[in-house]
Amino acid sequence: MIRIYGQGYAWQSLLACLLLGLGGALAALAVGTPLPWLFGPVVCVGAAAILGLKLGGDVLRFPGRIRQLFVPVIGLSIGGSFTPEVMAGITEWWPSLLALLVYIPAVHWACYLYCRRYGGLDVPTAWYGSMPGGFVEAITMGERDGANEGVLAAMQFLRLIICILFIPLGLSIIEGQQVGSASGVSLPGADLPLTLKDAAVLIGCGVAGYIIGTRSGMPAGQITGPIVLSAAAHLTGVLDGQPPVWTIRTTQLVIGITLGVRFAGMRHRDLLRALRLSATLVAGVLTLATLVALALGPLVGESVEAVVLSFAPGGLVEMSLVALSLNISAVYVTAHHVLRIVVAVIVGRAGYAIVRRREGAG
């Protein structure tokens, strides 16, 4: 037994997670899937977890807090995308940012009605399971208000997984070819030789940004803190380099493993029910996001793909990583997902009281 962050893990289970994740990444790379270093680990580790694989007397488990050590890498890379040209373009984003303020409550309400009428879920499970953002907050608030914990956790988790697996695949199909990093396109500056000075500044921005972001209460501070400091360093000319490509791939691998192990211990009945509902809801929301993107793309000067990613119901970290890996306006996508989470949590908290009164009155 190995103790990490105060919890015990069977070493066989940890080793299996790493080997399954790495094997899945290499297999996905060989097949040519989008985001192979994320796609492969999620599928392979998740499949083993669903099948109930146990090693050393323990189900597949991997320390979730290790993920937090890698999240700043995404923030540093996104911060490096800030250029004077990008800053000038930010003033054009207001139509899509304002649209989010209407889009999030409307999507939440529509998904809630579907879960109540066609999913047979109780009020708290339907409401918090339908939240299009704030994974941890949705589960925390739902458990407090009496939601079915298994179904709620599965729905929120599958929302992220479905977006991660199918958005890059869908973009590749629409484009008719591999997109972004899968086609050999690398992040701007990622291939530049990293000097000792740049490495030191990047590490400093990552550590300081993480501390400032998490302790100041910034939304998703573990990623937004490093974004702010990295952007400032790049815009002022203090920093030229980007985190090397291998750090992005390692981050994808770790995030993929930590997502995959969450399937361990889920009751198959809850999982299948949540899968049916989540797949339908995500498909509907992505269809709406595509229509919104077709209308807003020309207004904000961004590609349809960037707007779809920005309005997709995936996680901030996950969608930012997808944007980075596919080389799709990461700054634009991240800005919108920060706002999406804030609005989703506010609507989730305030809206439940209204929904409960309405259902009680009905």
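^ that was protein a. below is b, sequence first then the tokens
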Amino acid sequence: METPLREPTFLILTALAGEPLHGYGLITEVSRLSDGRVTLRPGTLYGALDRLVDAGLVEVDHEEVVDSRLRRYYRLSPQGGTTLAAETERMRRNVEAATARLRRLPRPQLPRPQLTEGWT
């Protein structure tokens, strides 16, 4: 699997770190985790899940039939947990470095309001 992980992949793994989820549950959780910035369509999600299963990062947890349709639940594999932890640490270090540098930037000066005659 590529490193760094693309954001949708990172969010899918993050969603599955909580509990096993089926497709619609994953779409909903990824949207929630990203504050609505990432919207997965079913075709995109299932293609990503196939790749993640092939890479050993995600496993099928169980299946059930709901309204005569098969619902497959996925879970994070141990290798997926290791990959997610490593990516989270990489991102944490990047955020830490950026935050430290931003603290050194001069703060922008806000313009002072000008008083006009007659105001006290």
